[in-house]
Design brief:
Elements (H helix, E strand, L loop, with lengths): L2 H8 L2 H4 L5 H12 L5 H14 L3 H12 L15 E5 L10 H10 L4 E5 L9 H7 L8 H9 L4 E4 H4 L1 H8 L1 H4 L4 H6 L10 E6 L3 H13 L2 E6 L15 E5 L2 E6 L18 H12 L7 H16 L1
Parallel strand pairs: 1-2, 1-4, 2-3, 4-5
Antiparallel strand pairs: 5-6, 6-7
Helix pairs in contact: 1-4, 3-5, 6-14, 7-14
């Protein structure tokens, strides 16, 4: 594969760069995941895609390559459609409530698989909060399937779900910026499309790209502007949430406008211990779950009940 020619095509900046077609994107990302691209060219490719952004065709090709390298799981028998939650950003300023959303869904009898990173030198990851809540890592497919059958939430590190993805994600710390893998990992689905994914984006440009993915792939999911990049609805002001299924946008929950009427009680600090204690109190009914998260939960449960 001629990496130099591809770099020449995509590496001309945001306005001057061209795109590659889906077949070439599939082959290229397969090589990147399998460690076949030399380091110098790999860095150039990742930065070039970071600057120009991925086209729909490129995303489709990349996704196909990624999906072939993600561990496959069997959905629990006799249970609702499983929910897949990605957690790759963590908390930077406020408590990370992704574990709260996962536990609320599991309490509804919905199989829940959360996947993401286990460490971040600058943020509090979901796995740190899960640990304080007594939710362990899940290291094998059989263990994950057993926990879901028992209505227990699953957290699986991306290094277990796909070592190839984990390698490309960790290049962030060498290159200094995120790459296409940070977008693709949020779409990883061990159930091969037989699930409901909750996916967040950080930058507004990616709302349309991710929405196009759900429509073109015909898969189910909720898409929203994340809270510090995480999938839970902003507890202070509900974001716009879009629900996809059967190749179309099926429902839109509009964002709250105007001034904030009141600020809900939230974790007093962003560390894992404080956040976990607050989540435990919320699950016990001692503090109110913020209304935007309640609205998000109700929307997902209703969709799955009707699926």
């Amino acid at each position: 594969m001629d990496y130099t020619q591809i770099i020449k095509e995509i590496g001309r900046g945001k306005d001057g760069a061209g795109d590659i077609d889906q077949a070439v994107a599939y082959e290229l990302y397969s090589h990147m995941l399998d460690g076949k691209v030399p380091d110098f060219e790999l860095g150039a490719l990742l930065v070039a895609f970071r600057i120009k952004g991925e086209s729909e065709a490129e995303m489709a090709g990349f996704y196909q390559a990624m999906d072939e390298r993600v561990m496959k799981l069997q959905a629990p028998v006799g249970k609702p459609l499983p929910v897949v939650i990605s957690t790759y950003n963590g908390a930077r300023r406020q408590g990370n409530l992704t574990p709260l959303l996962a536990l609320l869904l599991a309490r509804e009898g919905i199989p829940v698989l959360v996947h993401g990173v286990t460490t971040d030198p600058k943020r509090v990851t979901s796995v740190e909060v899960f640990k304080e809540l007594g939710v362990p890592w899940t290291a094998t497919a059989s263990e994950a399937e057993k926990r879901m059958q028992q209505d227990l939430p699953v957290f699986m590190p991306i290094a277990t779900l796909s070592p190839q993805l984990d390698y490309l994600l960790n290049l962030r710390w060498r290159l200094g910026v995120r790459n296409s893998t940070h977008t693709l990992a949020k779409l990883a689905d061990p159930f091969s499309g037989q699930s409901f994914r909750i996916v967040s984006v950080t930058h507004p440009d990616y709302i349309s790209r991710m929405g196009a993915f759900f429509i073109n792939s015909g898969t189910r999911g909720m898409l929203l502007r994340g809270t510090e990049g995480e999938v839970y609805a902003n507890p202070k002001r509900s974001p716009r949430m879009e629900v996809f299924g059967e190749g179309m946008l099926q429902q839109v929950i509009e964002a709250e406008e105007g001034s904030i009427a009141s600020i809900p009680e939230l974790p007093a600090a962003m560390d894992a211990v404080t956040t976990a204690r607050w989540i435990a109190r919320a699950l016990a009914g001692e503090v109110a779950v913020p209304l935007p998260i309640v609205k998000q939960l109700q929307t997902v449960v209703k969709f799955i009940d009707n699926a």
